[in-house]
Amino acid sequence: MNKRIHVFQIAFTYIGTIVGAGFATGREILQFFTQYGYLAVFTILLSTLLFILLGAKMMTLSRQIGAASYEDLNKHLFGERLGSIISLIMLVILIGVNSIMLAGAGSVFMENLNFHYQTGLLLTIIGTYLILRKGMTSILYMNSLVVPMMLALSLLIVSKSIHLPGADRFWTMSSDHSLPSVWLAPLLYTAFNLVMAMPVLVPLGSRTGSERTVRWGGILGGAGIGFMLMCAHFAMSAKMPGISQFEIPMGSIASQLGWLVQIIYILLIFLEIFSTFVANMYGITLQLQQRTSMNPRLITLGIMTACYVFSQFGFSSLLSILYPLFGALCLIWVTRLSVFGLSLARKI
Predict the structure, then answer these.
(1) pTM: predicted TM-score of the whole model, two decimal places
(2) Other Cβ atoms within 10 Å of 80 Cβ, number
(3) Which of 71, 15, 23, 65 is nearest to 283 (CA)?
(4) pLDDT number for residue 319
(5) What is the pLDDT of residues 157-194, one digit of tens each?
(6) Which of 104, 45, 57, 44 is nearest to 280 (CA)?
(7) CB 185 within 8 A of CB 36
(8) Are the C-beta atoms of residues 221 and 11 closer than 8 Å to each other?
């Protein structure tokens, strides 16, 4: 029973790390999937398969080598020197990601709760600092509470969207985009998000006693991510193209389902952003601890200060510029993970 519970904890942490600002708000899904029309159904299935295979492989491999942080895994995949360089590049990427998480929190508070943009930023930073004092345990518990609620709400939104006039658009909506751009989008999306999940999945995998537990946690987590992708795509397709004008499109959909659903969804959006921000900060701090002798709390404060500065540029602008660029850089890493230890991949 304990192993089964741990499987779900790993799966929920995997989902909670991926379901950050762009995912929970809908901007990310709109940009990489929904705008491509009915073909998004197939590209989401491709992403789901990659999340299952590569997420499970990443955690299993981390466990086998006893990786303390994602830098250890990079050195194992690419060698000592190149792995160290790639880890530095990923550090820059992750700071950019956390800036987007923080900007997303600010947008939630400003657009849906009528608070100041800076209020969301500061509350997220303060809460993260307090939670990180308890380490990995707090991350597991936090995601075990938030992710099941997010899955249930995804089902609720789909059940309400079925009755809308445009409910069949997820299967009939056309697109003017070229086929190469359509099929490159899920690869970029998956590559970026797997790298984003590394800071917490690598130490999580290495600290789990059973390889079977790690593998099934990755499988269930990847499947859960695919399920939530499809739910959000279905709901947003019914509202296209008007839904694309909103900073938080899924919040707009929730607002049409009644005030109670809207409040719950907005709260969950913030909690998902918050959980991803916490997980990334945890992993970045671990990685920098290996390179410096600084106090981990000072490292955390320094990184959060940098993220606060970058988050002033806004949410949508950061998302549209940085995500495709980061995804392209991350493709190199995912390609290496895919071909490394093919016998391990066959086990998964």
Answers:
(1) 0.86
(2) 9
(3) 71
(4) 57
(5) 888 888 777 778 777 787 788 889 999 999 988 988 89
(6) 104
(7) yes
(8) yes
